[in-house]
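Problem 12. The chain below contains 95 residues. Write out its predicted structure in token notation.
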Amino acid sequence: MQITDVRVRKVSKEGKMKAVVSITLDNEFVVHDIKVIEGDKGLFIAMPSRKAGDGEYRDIAHPINSDTRDKIQKIILEKYEIAALETEEAEETEA
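Solution.
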């Protein structure tokens, strides 16, 4: 499995959620609404989820093992950092 595209949409409002990301796998399958969250120990991703009848949130799509989760998270966070730097540079240019 290869992640062939990552699209980062930064969230401008204050809060723990920093971006919403879509990834394309093998140029054939897209997963939308992966969130980049700022936690106590740094940035991490949260897979798309839906609120169940019991009030709990359940992932709609998620990796089956930790190696795949780590691979997806690494690529997403790298792309997020690039997008954050580009935003900072654009803001400095405008100022």
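Discussion. The beta strands are 3-10, 17-25, 29-39, 42-46, 49-51, 57-59. Students who got a different answer should revisit the alignment rule from Section 12.3.
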